[in-house]
Every structure is written in structure tokens, then in C-alpha cells.
Write a structure and sequence with these properties.
By secondary structure, the protein is mostly beta strands. It contains one helix and twelve strands, in the order E-E-H-E-E-E-E-E-E-E-E-E-E. It has one domain: Immunoglobulin-like, CATH 2.60.40.1090.
Length: about 160
């Protein structure tokens, strides 16, 4: 069985660039976001080891002023489960628990900063009209020994970048 990120419109996973009340930096820089899905591949339900994989969130910022300090926070949604404690992907009526983390040790759940989750924050100086791209690894894990029916499992995660 495989897991892939889906968006409502096309391939990849859904991204949302959010800026409720634009701070000054939002007026003088433009940031875009893209993401590659976490593809777990085949899940062995009788293996005593978890199944791990990674994906990437990419943020590219282009300044309109030289020497601009851009700061942003990257949050991930709960997905279809509606809570961070037990993210799940589905194939028809079957579900499979999984989790997304900010670190390679898979100890810090990547969320929106609530319910014991963390976000990723970054800031750096931009040169005039020179885009700067940063990649952030999404660490995924499916816990071991989950009974699962054969099928293609999926979930939709929304990425929110606030700057």
C-alpha cells in the first residue's frame, strides 16, 4: 500500500499561504510554498518495526527591498482525523495511523503549535530581487503492527506559512 499527499486541485499536497493582517515584510517580499508528499511505499502490517519516510516543504521568498529580514512560521494541519494525537490516512473505510514530525528522531509532532505540537520558524536577510529558497524535511512514521487492508491510503495535509 502507498501513501501520497493529495491536493484538491492537482498533485502534491495542498498549500496555503496565509497572512491575515499583512505586516510590513509582507508588503515588501513575496513568498511561495511548495511541497512533496511523504511516500511510505508498501506497509508491512506484521513487521515489528515502524515504517518511516520523508517529504519536503519548500519556501521561496523574493524581496522587493534590499536587506529585508523575512520571518515566517510553517504549520501543518491535522488532516482528515481532525486531531494531532492520531492522524490517520484512509483507503475506503479502512484507516492506518501515522504521524508527521519536525525532527529526524520523530519526537516532536509537526502541527500548529497547539495540543503539544510544534511549528517550524525561520528568518533570514534577503538581498534585493534575489530569491532565497529553504527546504524543510517532513519526517513521517507509520507505527508498527497495525492491521491494514490492502489498498492505496491517503490523507490531505494543509501547509500554512504565516509571514
Amino acid at each position: 500500500m502507498t501513501w501520497r499527499w493529495r491536493s484538491s486541485a492537482a498533485l502534491g499536497f495542498a498549500t496555503l499561504l496565509a497572512c491575515a493582517s499583512p505586516p510590513a515584510q509582507a508588503l515588501f517580499a513575496s513568498c511561495t510554498t511548495s511541497a512533496s508528499g511523504v511516500a511510505f511505499g508498501t506497509y508491512p502490517p506484521f513487521s515489528a518495526s515502524p515504517t518511516d519516510s520523508t517529504g519536503t516543504v519548500t519556501v521561496t521568498c523574493t524581496p522587493l527591498l534590499a536587506g529585508l529580514l523575512v520571518s515566517y512560521t510553517i504549520a501543518l494541519s491535522t488532516g482528515s482525523s481532525g486531531n494531532y494525537a492520531s492522524r490517520s490516512m484512509s483507503s475506503g473505510v479502512s484507516t492506518l495511523q501515522y504521524q508527521l514530525y519536525t525532527d529526524s528522531a520523530r519526537s516532536t509532532v509537526w502541527g500548529d503549535g497547539s495540543a503539544g505540537t510544534a511549528t517550524i520558524s525561520d528568518s533570514y536577510l534577503l538581498d534585493l530581487l534575489v530569491p532565497k529558497t529553504r527546504n524543510y524535511t517532513v519526517y513521517g512514521r507509520i507505527p508498527a503492527l497495525q492491521p491494514a487492508s490492502p489498498g492505496a491510503y491517503g490523507d490531505t495535509i494543509m501547509v500554512t506559512v504565516t509571514y
